[in-house]
Amino acid sequence: MELNDKIYATPRHETHVVKVGQIKIGGNNPIVVQSMALGVHIDSDDIKSGAKRYAKEIIELAHAGSELVRIALNSEEVARAIPYIVEEINKEDFDSKILVGCGQYELDRLVQDYPDNIKMLGKIRMNPGNIGFGDKRDEKFERVIEYTIKHDLPIRIGVNWGSLDKYLSQKLMDENSLSSNPKSSDVVLREALVMSALSSARKAEEIGLSADKIIISCKVSKVQDLISVYTALAKSSNYALHLGLTEAGMGNKGVINTTAGLTYLLQNGIGDTIRASLTQRPGESRVSEVIVCQEILQSIGLRHFNPQVSSCPGCGRTNSDRFRILTEEVNDYIKIHMPTWKKKNPGVERMNIAVMGCIVNGPGESKHANLGISLPGYGEKPVSAVYRNGKYFKTLQGNNIFEEFTVIINDYVKEHYTHE
């Protein structure tokens, strides 16, 4: 196979551009990272206090880099709390339009009862399978769409495997059972997901909502299903697409499954906004799902968020912890200084640093980075060669190698990433 850049440069699927506050989703705009706040219980007798606790998590996610943060519109208390949540996030210089209201069974009632509160949000998310039942389903769907039109709100029509429109799925299953060449139930359900999302979006357009106000998603929990469904969506429409593997799981399983599914689609030009739906361990922050999204986008070159540190795994030639400690120290140093660098040193997120353990690949890898430091390997004497822009720069010795290397890092940042 001939190697060329086309492998890494599949054209983006052309979609409508949806504006959410100051953020543009779709077209050739950067892939948007979003997350969802876990939320807190809000006491009806103390809405303001509950709103402050809810806002604290939203602010944490926003500071981590979540450009949109979804909240569950699942009660009157949450709807009443929106103005107070907005007040708190405004104090941190975040626009209320970063908030996405996720409504299910109760969405129709809440937009009618609290229209002025909900219009403060940037976007609404609706699942057509949960908006209503029987004759009331279409009526409720229409009311929510009419509300978004009146208040100029974009909407994500999000269909989930676990809450698919029962009427549609049963209809397709019945038709399939009568076919002379029936498909597997999984194939039929994938078709039902795509059909539900597209038919709901087109119905919203018939009511009067513009296509550039619609984002659609079809969430499933298996990687191959995700790829099949979104490939079909991209071939069938030009709506902006939100990607995510729902119920991805906890720990490595969730991260790996999410990475596998999203990377394939993004590499093939499919997807305009993403979320990693990870199960956090008790007490763990949801910030991890923001970091996973950022790492996916940065690893395939679609966006840059932080300087990248390349480091080897270590082997028998690196028989002490000196190299691993240095790697950890460099990573921590970048994490601590990035908030300042982002403001004062634009472009620093594209910097590459190599921290290598021995002379086998160390010098070569270091020469490919903006900055590289290579330890000698066996015995790991306190001697380290430093490279700048592919050329040998100097050798550091003694017990203060990390401190001396941070001076080199800071000098490089100031020299190469400073406002004119």
From TrEMBL:
<dbReference type="GO" id="GO:0019288">
    <property type="term" value="P:isopentenyl diphosphate biosynthetic process, methylerythritol 4-phosphate pathway"/>
</dbReference>
<feature type="binding site">
    <location>
        <position position="312"/>
    </location>
    <ligand>
        <name>[4Fe-4S] cluster</name>
    </ligand>
</feature>
<keyword id="KW-0408">Iron</keyword>
<comment type="function">
    <text>Converts 2C-methyl-D-erythritol 2,4-cyclodiphosphate (ME-2,4cPP) into 1-hydroxy-2-methyl-2-(E)-butenyl 4-diphosphate.</text>
</comment>
<dbReference type="Pfam" id="PF26540">
    <property type="entry name" value="GcpE_C"/>
</dbReference>
<feature type="domain" description="IspG C-terminal">
    <location>
        <begin position="309"/>
        <end position="410"/>
    </location>
</feature>
<feature type="domain" description="IspG TIM-barrel">
    <location>
        <begin position="15"/>
        <end position="293"/>
    </location>
</feature>
<dbReference type="InterPro" id="IPR011005">
    <property type="entry name" value="Dihydropteroate_synth-like_sf"/>
</dbReference>
<dbReference type="InterPro" id="IPR045854">
    <property type="entry name" value="NO2/SO3_Rdtase_4Fe4S_sf"/>
</dbReference>
<keyword id="KW-0560">Oxidoreductase</keyword>
<keyword id="KW-0004">4Fe-4S</keyword>
<dbReference type="InterPro" id="IPR058579">
    <property type="entry name" value="IspG_C"/>
</dbReference>
<dbReference type="InterPro" id="IPR004588">
    <property type="entry name" value="IspG_bac-typ"/>
</dbReference>
<dbReference type="InterPro" id="IPR058578">
    <property type="entry name" value="IspG_TIM"/>
</dbReference>
<dbReference type="Pfam" id="PF04551">
    <property type="entry name" value="GcpE"/>
</dbReference>
<dbReference type="GO" id="GO:0046429">
    <property type="term" value="F:4-hydroxy-3-methylbut-2-en-1-yl diphosphate synthase activity (ferredoxin)"/>
</dbReference>
<comment type="pathway">
    <text>Isoprenoid biosynthesis; isopentenyl diphosphate biosynthesis via DXP pathway; isopentenyl diphosphate from 1-deoxy-D-xylulose 5-phosphate: step 5/6.</text>
</comment>
<dbReference type="GO" id="GO:0016114">
    <property type="term" value="P:terpenoid biosynthetic process"/>
</dbReference>
<feature type="binding site">
    <location>
        <position position="358"/>
    </location>
    <ligand>
        <name>[4Fe-4S] cluster</name>
    </ligand>
</feature>
<dbReference type="GO" id="GO:0141197">
    <property type="term" value="F:4-hydroxy-3-methylbut-2-enyl-diphosphate synthase activity (flavodoxin)"/>
</dbReference>
<keyword id="KW-0411">Iron-sulfur</keyword>
<comment type="similarity">
    <text>Belongs to the IspG family.</text>
</comment>
<keyword id="KW-0479">Metal-binding</keyword>
<keyword id="KW-0414">Isoprene biosynthesis</keyword>
<protein>
    <recommendedName>
        <fullName>4-hydroxy-3-methylbut-2-en-1-yl diphosphate synthase (flavodoxin)</fullName>
        <ecNumber>1.17.7.3</ecNumber>
    </recommendedName>
</protein>
<dbReference type="GO" id="GO:0005506">
    <property type="term" value="F:iron ion binding"/>
</dbReference>
<feature type="binding site">
    <location>
        <position position="315"/>
    </location>
    <ligand>
        <name>[4Fe-4S] cluster</name>
    </ligand>
</feature>
<dbReference type="GO" id="GO:0051539">
    <property type="term" value="F:4 iron, 4 sulfur cluster binding"/>
</dbReference>
<dbReference type="InterPro" id="IPR016425">
    <property type="entry name" value="IspG_bac"/>
</dbReference>
<feature type="binding site">
    <location>
        <position position="365"/>
    </location>
    <ligand>
        <name>[4Fe-4S] cluster</name>
    </ligand>
</feature>
